[in-house]
Design goal:
Structural class: alpha+beta
InterPro entries: Carb-sel_porin_OprB (IPR007049), Cell_Envelope_Struct_Comp (IPR051465), Por_som-like (IPR047684), SLH_dom (IPR001119)
Oligomer: single chain
Shape: elongated
CATH topology of the largest domain: Porin
Order of helices and strands: HHHHHHHHHHEEEEEEEHEEEEEEEEEEE
Largest sheet: 16 strands, antiparallel, barrel
CATH class of the largest domain: Mainly Beta
Strand order of the largest sheet: 1-3-4-6-7-8-9-10-11-12-13-14-15-16-17-18
Pfam families: OprB, SLH
GO molecular function: porin activity
Number of strands: 18
Strand content: 25-35%
Number of helices: 11
GO biological process, one term: carbohydrate transport
Family: Belongs to the OprB family.
């Protein structure tokens, strides 16, 4: 028997039954006659996806078309228009059988060259040539065209199969062949029925999913972090100029109990146009803040005989949450015109969420660096607590082929809890503030990618009433990076302090398995209101990061971070006998194991040398294991 017939029968159980029995009324093949046009056009063609789907696709199974794309990837079925033009609506209503189609109006061609719109470069050219010239079962339109991109109707499908089967059976099939096929069909009748049942089950499950889906426009995704951490060695980070125990911290040791905590985020992402995003995030957690002076994290000072690290330099990347669920994030992102993106934050606005921070393997709190400082330049954290605002990004140059681009970003975040810390008084009822007399920060950034694997950025932030260290670096004493002019209040703010901050960032993919990134930041801080008017200070920080992805398996990342968190390097007043020392260093190493598509485990070590710029302080060594589940 001809090889083409075996191919058709092997991939089309319906044809096997039809040829073997001479009728089309069996249970297995009757589903073909019951298919609607939409089901026929959408039926899968890959045998690996659905081995016994009763839909015929001649083109896919011809020997000369093994590399042809599937029907789902084309605008129309590759066999569309093989017999005759599609009937008009009137013709469709009046036709009751395939036989009503007049063969005289559809001349049989003897060579593929007679079809004017079929070229040797077409992907199905060889298959058409074989069907036309070898088997003589494919015809063209009266005008000598083939119209290969036209959709296939059920009438044309039936006529095409009938014509080809007639030719094959008349020329190549014997009675013995047909009898053998009939026996095979009977032998595998149970298997065919089983496959049909599986298809019906899948269709039912699909219909149920469509009927009970969460929302047509909204997707729910979640991230859960389980944290295990412990301070392996060290003492409470005393201010500069004090001894190992400190004058007021004498006898205090760091709490070295192993801590197990978690953070849960539920993101409801809605898109109305396909290119926009409305995100509502619900969050809960209890991750310990290692900058606290006591296990309870009280801001009132020393309450117990022991405490935590006592410096912001030891904070984790995902700390600062509470046990109760809260609305953590609400923003809307859209593109009104090409190359322009606008993000409106209703609460919890964050620069790092709205722009590129030049540290791609470390910037995520879910899967990036373990420490707060190691994620990116602290300049992206200079904003108040829980602010609102807007970010605008415009890409003014791009060459996709060369991989180069340039864009400009403007952002404003204002309000939040820091407003309560302003030094208001009868003599100064309205201290200078943002658009609404509150704390604020305004950012401008230029990002350039001069070559495909290199990105450079310069960032400027002007802020008022905001911690210029971004919650990292030295802390807990007058002159520290989070309180450089000594104007911090009991609420944790920085009073009426104005700061001008500049940052430079870069990232360079040396090879696919090694990326080098880094940054440097400088802040000029001025006390513009209150009792310490005229005080000023300068802060500096820098870091180098190295990432090696896919070392052991795809998705793994080995990370190394070394640098100096924000520290005060100079002031115009004397404080704490050496506050200008610039000798605190941060060293972090971790390896993220990508256990599966949704689970990763990242053990690592964070070491702070000379915590809070005090050489008398022993290094603080923090061990961390972060397990992340993403759904």
């Amino acid at each position: 028997m001809s090889r083409i017939l075996w191919k058709l029968l092997a991939t089309t159980p319906v044809l096997a039954l039809g040829v073997g029995s001479g009728v089309y009324a069996t249970e297995a093949n009757s589903s073909l006659l019951q298919l609607t046009p939409g089901e026929l056009n959408s039926a899968p063609t890959s045998l690996t996806t659905l081995p016994a789907q009763p839909v015929v696709n001649l083109a896919q199974n011809l020997p000369t078309m093994r590399s042809a794309p599937s029907v789902s990837s084309l605008e129309a079925d590759p066999l569309a228009g093989t017999l005759a033009p599609a009937p008009t609506s009137t013709q469709t209503q009046t036709q009751s059988a395939v036989g009503t189609r007049s063969r005289q109006s559809i001349p049989q061609v003897t060579s593929v060259s007679q079809l004017s719109d079929v070229r040797p470069t077409d992907w199905a050219y060889q298959a058409l040539a074989s069907l036309v010239e070898k088997y003589g079962c494919i015809a063209g339109y009266p005008d000598g065209t083939f119209r290969g991109n036209r959709a296939l109707t059920r009438y044309e499908m039936a006529a095409a199969l009938n014509a080809c089967l007639d030719v094959v059976s008349d020329r190549f099939a014997t009675k013995e062949d047909l009898a053998a096929l009939q026996r095979l069909a009977q032998e595998f009748a149970n298997e065919l029925a089983l496959v049909k049942g599986r298809v019906d089950n899948l269709e039912g499950r699909t219909s149920n999913l469509e009927a009970t889906q969460f929302a047509t426009l909204t997707k729910l995704n979640a991230t859960v972090i389980f944290n295990t951490s412990d301070i392996l060695s060290g003492q409470v980070a005393n201010p500069p100029g004090t001894g190992p125990g400190g004058s007021s911290l004498a006898g205090r040791n760091i709490v070295d109990n192993t801590v197990v905590s978690n953070r849960v985020r539920l993101n409801f992402d809605t898109s109305f146009t396909g290119s926009d995003l409305l995100r509502i995030r619900i969050q809960s957690g209890n991750v310990v803040n290692y900058s606290a002076l006591s296990p309870s994290g009280s801001s009132g000072g020393i309450l117990n005989a022991s405490g935590l690290a006592g410096t912001n330099a030891a904070r984790l990347a995902y700390d600062g949450t509470t046990n109760g669920f809260e609305l953590h994030k609400l923003f809307y992102r859209f593109s009104p015109v090409k190359n322009l993106t606008v993000i409106a934050d209703a609460n919890a606005g964050a620069y790092e969420d709205n722009m590129f921070t030049f540290n791609p393997f470390f910037q995520s709190s879910d899967t990036g660096a373990l420490s707060r400082f190691g994620r990116f330049n602290p300049i992206y954290r200079i904003y108040g607590s829980n602010p609102a605002g807007a970010t605008i990004n415009y890409k003014f140059a791009e060459n996709k082929e060369a991989g180069t681009s340039a864009d400009f970003t403007l952002a404003y975040l204002g309000g939040g809890t820091n407003t309560a810390s302003f030094n208001r008084s009868p003599a100064n009822p309205n201290p200078p503030g943002g658009l609404f007399g509150d704390s604020f920060s305004a950012l401008a950034q230029i990002s350039v990618r001069p070559i495909k694997d290199l990105a450079l950025g310069v960032t400027y932030v002007r802020a008022f009433g905001v911690d210029p260290s971004g919650g990292t670096g030295t802390s807990g004493y007058t002159g520290a990076a989070n309180n450089p002019t000594g104007s911090a209040t009991a609420t944790g703010g920085v009073g009426n302090v104005t700061s001008d901050n500049v940052g430079f960032q870069f990232t360079y993919k040396v090879i696919p398995q090694f990326t080098l990134s880094g940054w440097a930041g400088y802040s000029s801080v001025n006390q513009s209101q209150g009792s310490n008017v005229g005080r000023n200070a300068s802060l500096v920080n820098w870091a180098i990061t190295a990432a090696a992805p896919d070392l052991w398996q795809k998705g793994d990342v080995a990370g190394l971070i070394f640098g100096q968190p924000p520290q005060t390097i100079s002031t115009n007043y004397t404080v704490n006998n050496g506050v200008t020392a610039f000798n605190m260093y941060h060293l972090e190493g971790f390896y993220r194991f990508q256990m599966s598509r949704n689970i990763s485990v990242a053990p690592g070590i964070i070491t702070i040398f000379n915590p809070n710029n005090n050489t008398a302080n022993a290094p603080i060594v923090l061990g961390v294991i972060r397990t992340t589940f993403q759904f």
